[in-house]
Design brief:
5-stranded antiparallel beta sheet, 7-stranded antiparallel beta sheet, disordered C terminus, 16 strands, 2 helices, single chain, mainly beta
C-alpha cells in the first residue's frame, strides 16, 4: 500500500509540473512562416504586420507586431491571438492571470492593447481581463494582467495583442510596434486520476 501511495504522489507531482503553463507556444519558439504555432495573426499576402524576431527575452525568438501600410494607404495594425482553432486554449477556473514580457514604441499617442477573454464550453464569455498601455518601453518589462471570472464554467481562453490609436477606435500609426515574449499562466487542473483520490478503489501495490 505504501508503494501505491508513492505512485499516486508521483502522478500528482508529474501532473503539476506539466500544468505550470497552459498557454500554447508561450515563448514563441515555434513558427510556421510568420505565424507562431498555436496562434493566429492578421498577416495577409504581402501585408505582414506580425513577424518573428531574434531579440528574445528568453530562448531564441519573440513575436513583434508593427503597424504597416495596408491597402489604399490605410494603416494596418497587427493582431495576434492565441487561437489555433475557433476556441482558444483550454483553461479552468484557476486561470486568474497572465504574465509576460514586452517592449514597445508607441507613436503619436498610440496604445498597446492586451485582452484576455474566458469562455465556457458554449462559447459564452464568463470572464476576462485587459489593459491599454500608452507609454513606450525600450527594454523588456514584465506585466501581469488579472483575470476576473464573473460566471462559472471556464473552458477556453483567448489572449490578444494589438495596437490602436489614442482613442482606441482605429488602427495605430506607422512606426508603432510591440514585442512580446515569455508568457505565463497559472497551473490549471492537475489531471490527477480519480483512483488516487478515491481510497475505495484498488491501487497498484508491491
Amino acid at each position: 500500500m505504501r508503494h501505491a501511495l508513492y505512485l499516486c504522489f508521483a502522478f500528482l507531482f508529474s501532473s503539476l509540473a506539466q500544468g505550470q503553463n497552459t498557454i500554447p507556444n508561450a515563448n514563441f519558439e515555434n513558427w510556421n512562416g510568420n505565424t507562431p504555432t498555436g496562434w493566429t495573426v492578421n498577416n495577409n499576402g504581402s501585408y505582414i504586420a506580425v513577424t518573428k524576431v531574434n531579440d528574445a527575452y528568453e530562448g531564441s525568438h519573440a513575436v513583434r507586431g508593427t503597424v504597416i501600410q495596408g491597402l489604399n494607404t490605410v494603416t494596418m495594425s497587427p493582431m495576434l491571438q492565441s487561437m489555433s482553432g475557433n476556441y482558444g486554449f483550454p483553461v479552468d477556473a484557476g486561470f486568474d492571470h497572465i504574465t509576460f514580457y514586452y517592449k514597445s514604441f508607441l507613436y503619436a499617442g498610440d496604445r498597446f492593447n492586451v485582452n484576455v477573454a474566458i469562455y465556457n464550453s458554449n462559447l459564452a464569455m464568463v470572464g476576462g481581463g485587459s489593459i491599454s498601455l500608452a507609454t513606450s518601453e525600450s527594454n523588456y518589462s514584465s506585466l501581469t494582467i488579472p483575470v476576473i471570472h464573473f460566471a462559472p464554467g471556464a473552458a477556453f481562453a483567448n489572449i490578444s495583442f494589438t495596437l490602436v490609436d489614442g482613442q482606441g477606435m482605429t488602427n495605430g500609426h506607422l512606426l508603432s510596434w510591440f514585442q512580446v515574449d515569455a508568457l505565463e499562466g497559472p497551473a490549471t487542473s492537475t489531471g490527477v486520476s480519480e483512483e488516487c483520490l478515491d481510497n475505495t478503489k484498488p491501487l497498484i501495490a508491491f
